[in-house]
Specification:
Blueprint: E1 2-4, H1 10-19, E2 23-26, E3 31-37, E4 40-49, E5 52-57, H2 68-83, H3 88-95, H4 103-113, H5 123-136, H6 146-158, H7 162-181, H8 211-221, H9 230-242, H10 246-250, E6 257-258, E7 263-268, E8 271-276, H11 279-292, H12 313-324, H13 337-350, H14 354-360, H15 378-396
Parallel strand pairs: 1-2
Antiparallel strand pairs: 2-3, 3-4, 4-5, 6-7, 7-8
Helix pairs in contact: 4-5, 5-6, 5-7, 6-7, 9-11, 9-13, 13-14, 13-15, 14-15
């Protein structure tokens, strides 16, 4: 496109407009008439900001609906914005009306922004689709009140699903916090609500499985006639033998393991924890490596995706619940109880101190120090976890390579 810096009269502008030859005609003070086709032209302003040159189309209709005099007036406003130190183009983009109107729009934008996968295997998406969207999805953002959210959470809680209600409240807080950060809302309508408002707080869990219960449980999990995937069986072994959190297991990639040195690097809350691996544990990991191919996540999602995803924690929980159901234990338990069980068995069965047991799990001791990253106690932790793995192998009948 030809750009002319010679200022034109009204008659010359009209001629350029009618001829329609693509060009920019300078009209003074950075104002240009941009002609793109016969009888099709718009007004543009050229300016420099932070050393970069920009062209910005003026608001409103183009030429001739907006006359040269009106375009010059709008140009003066743009120059005034620049004199105040702002970028007119950026200011205009920020003032554009948002395409996010409803709660559903907000959720999808937040989901895309977080690069999360839109699948019901993903807990935030599932809870939004099944619990939040039916009541709040179509409501405009500005009309959502704290009472609306309280009604939603109360309904879920009264349906006998306190954990789902707790998760829904947590995601709503994140969702509207995102809206406030994007300046779509001034206040977070969920900010003042807490789990205690809906009696969702639970007493601290103290469940520890006994060795006899573990014998029954793993007997069911690893029975020859069940259809439980071998990789899941190995995952349960790893959780119990190492006392790691299920999130730590599922988010681990094979690159974090050094099977020759017998070390597992866990990236946890901006710190790295190094877990020593017993020979039995190394053998299970090698078996898992052969089953999964040894690339990406230790336990990858079975769902096809452009971006590799780890196995869902819900999958392991469902498998465990199904296997344990016929056992009729006197006290219910969940997968997270494995970690507490590991710590207690280290103390009770191996007669080691609670401080060492906490260090084996990467926990803080009573004195508040972080334990696992200290090199001087690696040998001590390695021996304790090796003795514990041997205890499990001998008690639960697990076969392993020496």
């Amino acid at each position: 496109m030809v750009t002319s810096n010679n200022m034109l009269s009204e008659q010359e502008l009209e001629l350029a407009y009618l001829l329609g030859k693509p060009c920019r005609k300078h009209c003074g003070n950075g104002l240009y008439l941009r002609v793109t086709a016969p009888a099709k032209a718009s007004w543009e302003v050229r300016y420099s900001f932070n050393g970069k040159r920009h062209f910005m189309t003026l608001d409103g209709e183009g030429y001739p609906t907006v006359s040269l005099a009106d375009a010059q007036l709008k140009t003066a406003v743009v120059k005034l914005q620049m004199a105040k130190g702002s970028n007119p183009l950026t200011d205009r983009q920020q003032q554009k009306p948002s395409k996010i109107v409803s709660v559903n729009d907000l959720f999808l934008t937040w989901y895309d922004d977080e690069q999360l996968q839109r699948t019901t295997q993903n807990k935030p998406y599932r809870i939004f689709v099944h619990e939040i969207k039916p009541l709040l999805g179509r409501i405009p953002l500005a009309e959502v009140t704290q009472q609306d959210i309280a009604l939603l959470i109360g309904n879920i809680q009264r349906s006998g699903r306190p954990s789902v209600a707790n998760e829904a409240l947590r995601y709503l807080k994140q969702l509207f916090r995102f809206a406030c950060a994007k300046k779509l809302l001034a206040l977070n309508p969920a900010a003042g609500l807490t789990p205690a408002d809906f009696h969702l707080t639970h007493p601290r869990r103290e469940r520890v499985l006994s060795l006899m219960e573990l014998q029954q449980l793993f007997g069911a999990l690893e029975a020859r006639d069940n259809d439980i995937d071998r990789s899941y069986q190995l995952a349960f072994r790893l959780l119990l033998a190492l006392g790691i959190r299920k999130k730590q297991l599922l988010e681990t990639r094979w690159t974090q393991l050094d099977l020759q040195q017998g070390l597992w690097r866990i990236d946890d809350n901006q710190r790295q924890l190094y877990l020593p691996l017993a020979p039995a544990v190394i053998a299970w990991l090698k078996e898992l490596q052969q089953l999964t191919g040894g690339s990406g996540y230790l336990l990858a999602s079975r769902h096809r995706s452009k971006v590799p995803k780890p196995l869902s924690a819900d999958t392991l929980s469902r498998v465990l619940k199904k296997a344990a159901q016929p056992l009729n234990f006197s006290e219910p338990f969940v997968l997270d109880d494995f970690r507490r069980t590991t710590k207690q068995l280290l103390v009770d069965q191996l007669a080691i101190s609670m401080e060492l047991a906490q260090r084996c799990l990467g926990q803080k001791t009573a004195t508040g120090g972080v334990m696992v990253s200290a090199e001087h106690d690696l040998a001590q932790r390695r021996q304790a976890l090796a003795d514990y793995a041997n205890l499990l192998v001998n008690t639960l009948g697990w076969q392993h390579m020496p």
